Batch of 3 targets.
Target 1
Amino acid sequence: MELYYLPTSPPCRAVLMAAKAVGVDLKKTILNSLEGETLRPEFVKINPQHIIPTLVDNGFAVWESRAILIYLVEKYAKDDSLYPTDPQQKAVINQRLYFDMGTLTQSFAEYYYPQWLCRKPADPEAFKKIDLAFFYLNSFLENQEYVAGDHLTIADIAILATVSSFIVAGIDITKYSNVEKWYANAQKTTPGWDENCEGLLLLKEWIDKKINLSN
């Protein structure tokens, strides 16, 4: 099973953690989308949308990280705890996954990418979206240890990859007490956390380089 990925990418790191959680080994190929490497003809043949992460399992290709998380669990997990078959439990997990994609990750991109990639000044209005996203996440975690129920699921894995990237970028989560508590626990309970940390270190180096270039 081959994964095309970039270790600095939160969605890619979510897939790494999910693979560890279900016990599958990945042949990893780094493609730097910022350098145009995903436009290589051989990769476009695999994924015409040419985005990462992309997983290839015995000739079957799937992309979009949250789709990959579901695929890995449904095909390879020993039980359904990471993505329960109960419709209501699954609906909550799906909601959290869509929240991660459309709200939390989107706020990260809208605030940080213009600064890092285009050297634009920080936009206070864009930062308000980050604060609102964490407010929502904090409310999801009221009186519970995990984001979608009473145990670890792929929703935690996806959001952990994102939140850890926010922290590396400089976000202080201490004012979101439920998120802070969840984050401390998630580091201990999520398989593959060490590999996520390796990617975070690379992300920090990349961020520092971009900041120095803009000064």
Target 2
Amino acid sequence: MEQGKLFTETSNKVITCRAAIAWTTNAPLSIEKIEVDPPKAGEVRIKIISSGVCGTDKHILEGKDKVPLPAILGHEGAGIVESIGEGVTSVKPGDKVLMLPLPECRECSSCLHPTGNFCLKQSILPPTGLMLDGTSRFTCRGRKIYHLYGTSTFTEYTVVHEIAVGKIDDDAPMDTVCILTCEVPTGFGPVFNIAKVTPGSTCVIFGLGGIGSAVVMACKAAGASRIIGVDIKEEKFPRARALGVTDCLNPQKLKKPVQEVVVEMTGKGADFAFEAIGLIETIVATLESCHPSYGVGVIIGLPPTNSQLIFDPTLLLSGRTLKGGVLGKYKTRSCIPKMVTDYLQKKINIDPLITHKLPFESINKAFELLQGGHCIRCVLLF
């Protein structure tokens, strides 16, 4: 029997399933029974198989990044199409797919631009918490629940726009490839697409969590000769060194600002610097760590809501560059499924970026591991 036929009993019907709901900030997620509506025109309902737990989800729960609540968080997901709405042509029930937090409509000015990827139908900046028609597909206790970035992967079933779904190889390992929707492209893209790291160069990475670890791997692959890792949690250092970091710095144990130490270590500053935390002070430190004439700094982490960046403009006047990009500037539907194929063909290795796998019901344990610095990425299995 084809996989798609397994879902005929639920097609066009409301599905009752489990989801982890963030009712408020600074509180554990609550696993609840929810109702998931059928997909509307241009939408896809997906049975989640695995989901990564990202630092952005943690920042939302801490109240640093504001999103509409109550919501089903999660934006790194792999699953199987359960049913499709009217007009959907790129996937069918039974297909293995990834849910993409940044869509690719292939119609807006960003998507049509050769290098643009920040689709104007996105719901990240600012986060609306709703589908494109302004409504939600989730209900719990008679109350509508918000989506996150059009994905919401901390649930057994979700509804996503077709423009945010990527069909992947039938033999893709579903307990692993979910991290290709955020952790891997968000780490690899700044190195290969944005900064364009060169062989023999010196790089510094602020933050050695999931994204920072992916940046380290990419810098090593690009041929960087020196990779400086910065983090306040030294338990991350052994794993970082194993991935390619040559020097580890804990800013809390330095006698001067870490950017000054980086400049001293490198002579005049790093060739490339990456901020993978999402704090204003580390963004400024990233820029100040760059070589004054040609250093390139890249903002990766999502800063706290309504924060403002203030720095000395002469830092740029001398020749430094400060750049940014969501999902590594990859055109998501076009590029990310190809990364799955590359992984299957052993052209890239993402396995070291997953350190823990837990059952979905242990989701709060996953956040504890993340908070304590004890994991690079934890994948939840449904």
Target 3
Amino acid sequence: MHLYRKLVSKRADDGAEKDLESGIDHLLQQLKQVNCHMQAWVSSGGSEIFSHTLTRHQEILQDLTQEFSRLCSSLQAKKEHASLLEDFREFGRTSLDMEEGGSYGQALLKEHASISRSTGQMDSVISQAQETLGTLVFQRSTFGGINSKLSNVSSRLPTVNQILSAIKKKKSMDAIILSLVASVCTFLILIYWLTK
């Protein structure tokens, strides 16, 4: 993970990231399997000490998985950024070639290739956005289902609503009585102080 972090920070495009990614992914899968075996052993009557060890190992696995996912996303974003910059430079070189009287057909072919690459990258971004939208729609339907279940429960239990409204009335009456007692006491103290 340390080597992969260094590779992401310096972004050396030598193809080593694929080997590191597959190696890290393999090690994370092994750690997950070890945690599953430990979970099975602890649930079958292992000691409390091993239960704490299992919890710690699960937290470590979760942290490493999140960091690996974040580093992969960062590396992918850097690759896309570098590709866009390369397309922009290639477009500038094409424009310069056209201005210097280079082959017009080659310039058009280069421009078409850069547009095709940009279109492919935009398609991948759009597909990611559609996946995110699908996830959000699923979450919205889940929350809508929870809301409808809660409304069904409240409609089936009208006595709960009556009890809650009675509690609110009692609370407001208590507040009114308390404020009246406080104002009467203040008034009596004021009268006592003035007559003294």
